[in-house]
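Record Oligopeptide transporter, OPT family, 660 aa.
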Amino acid sequence: MANVALAGPKEITIRGVLLGIVITLVFTAAQVYLGLKVGLTFATSIPAAVISMALLSAFKDATIQENNIVQTIASAAGTLASVIFVLPGLLMIGWWAHVPFWPTFGACAIGGVLGVMYTVPLRRALVSQSDLPYPEGVAAAEVLKVGTSSRSGAAEGKLGLMAVIWGSVTSALFAAAAGAKLMAGEVAVYFKAGSGATGIGAASSLALLGAGHLMGITVGIAMLVGLIIAWAVLVPVLTSMDPMPALSAADHALGVWSKQVRIIGAGTIGAAAIVTLAGLGKPVLGGLKSALETARKAKMTGAEIPRADQDLPIFIVGLVTLLAMVPAGWLLASFLQGGVLSSLALPLVAVGVGYILVAGVFAAAVCGYMAGLIGSSNSPVSGIAILTILGASLSVGFVGKHIMGPEVAHALVAYALFVTTVVLAVAVIGNDNLQDLKTGQLVGATPWKQQVGLLIGVGAGSAVVPLVLELLNRANGFAGAPNVGVISDNPLAAPQATLISTLAKGVIGNNLEWDLVGYGALLGLLLVVVNFVVKKASGDRYSLPPLGVGLAIYLPSAVTAPVVVGAVAGWLFERAVSSATWGETAKRIGVLIMSGFIVGESLFNVGLAGLIVASGVGEPLAIANGMSETTHMLIALVLGGAIVSGLYRWAARSAQKIAA
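=>
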C-alpha cells in the first residue's frame, strides 16, 4: 500500500464550498439562458476566481488553494449547462410539454459524475506530464497568483470584482432597454440580390460581444469566414436558384438559410469534428496507459505519493463508475416505462447503458485533450454532440427497426436525445476537469480535493438546470416546439438543440437531407486542408479553426456577427495596451468586464422570464413609443459602442492606477 502524505494547505472549507455553490447557481442560470438563446456558453473559472478572492480576502487565513477550490466548484456551471444543447430537443419534438425535474437532474448528475471519474486516470498523462498549453487553466492560475501574492494583487482582485459588477450592471441595463422597446433587439439589413436575396443581422447583445472577446481573434476570424461563406456566397446563390419574388428579402434569405444553409453548416461541423478528433486516439490511449502504470508502480513499491500528485484512488474511480451504471439504467428504464417502446425496454436500456459507458469514455477523453490544446470554451463540444446523437440514433434505431412506425420512430428519437444528454454531460465535465486540474497543478492544489470539489459543483449545477430550463420553457418556449401555454411570443432559438433533434429525426426516420450534409462535409474537409496550409505557412502562428467556420455557417448571423465584432474589439484593445507596463493587468480587467457582460444580460433575461410567468404578460417591460425602426437600431449601435469603449478605457485607466 502506498504511503500518502496528508499534510497540506487549507483547501476544502465550509465557507469555500458554500461560496462555490452560490456562484455555481448564479452562473449556471446565466449559462442556460445564453446557450438557449445563441448556442454558445463561456468559461466561468476566471470570473469565479476573482469573485472568490475578493470575498475571501476578508478572512486572513484564506489560501490560494481554497480560492482554487471555489473556482473549481463554480466552473461546473460553465460546462454542465451545455446539456441544454440537447435537452430542449425533447420539448421541440413534443415528447415533453414541461421539463421534469428528476429525469433532468438525474441525466445531468450521472453524466457529470462519470465525467469526473473518466478523466481522473488521464490527469498525469494529459496534465502533469504533458506540454499541452491549457490556455484557460493557465490564465485562471495567473489570476489566482496575482490576486493573492501581494498588496497590488489584492487591489487588482477588488478591481476585478468591480469589473465583473460594472460589466453585469451595464449589460443588464442594455438588455432592459431592448426589453422596454427603447432600442432595437437586432440590427439587420436584408436586400434583393438579382433574383435572390441576402443580408446580415446582429443581435443587440453585450453578452455576445463579451463572448467574442473571450474567444479571441483566431476564432473571431474563423467565424467571419463562416459568415462570408453563408451570407455572401451560399444564401445569394441558393436563393437565386429558387426565386420567390412574392417574399420579402428577409423572408427569402432567412428561409433558404434555415432549410438549406444551416444543414450544410451541420455537415461542415461534423466533418471538421471527425477529422480533428481522429488524431487523438494515440495520446488518449497513451494517457490512460500511463495513469494505470503509475498507480500500479506506486502500489507495488509502496512509494510515497506527493500531495500534489494524489488523485482519487483508481479503485474508487472504478467502483463509482460501475455503481453509476445502476441509476443510469434505472433512469433510462423509467424514461421508456409505459410507452410504445415498453416491449423493447430491456435491449434499449442495455444499449443505452453500454453507449453511455463506451461513448462517454471517448467523449470525456477527447474533450479533455482538446481543452488542453485550445481551451474549454473552444473545445468542439458541438462536434461531440453531433457525433454522439448520430451514434445514439443509429444504435437505438437498429434495436427498434423491426417495429418501426410513426409512434415508434418518435419515441426512439426522444430516447436517443435522452441518452445523448447523459453522454454530453460526461463530455463537458471531462472537458472542464482537466482544465481545472491544470490550474490546480500551477497553484499547488491537491488533485483529489479538486475532483471532490467538481463533484459538488456537478450536484449544484444539476439542480439548477431543470429549474431554469422549465422557467424559460413556460415564459418563452422554444422555436419549433408546440409551446402550449407559453406566455411570450418570442421563443428562444436553442440552435444547438434544433440541430441535434433534426439529425436524430433524420437518421431514425431515414429522411435526412444527406446531399446537403455531404456538401457541408466536403466544405469541412476543404477547411481542414486550408487550416493545415495556414498553420504550416505561418509556422503555427496563425490558424483557421474549421469548427469555428462551420459554427458561423450553422448559427444565425444575429449570433455570430456580434461575436466577430467582440473578437475584433478585444484584439484591438489588447493590442493597444500590450506595450504598457500595466498592459497585462488591463487585459485581465477587460476579460472580467466581458464575463460580466455575459452574466448580467443572461441573469436579467432569466429574471425577465420569471416576471413574464408571474405577470402572465409576454412583454411586461415594453413602453410604447413612436420612434422608427431605423432610430431604434441607431440607438442600439450608439449606446452599445459607448458602453464598450467607455469600459475599455476604464479598464486601462484602472490598471494604470494600480501600477503607479
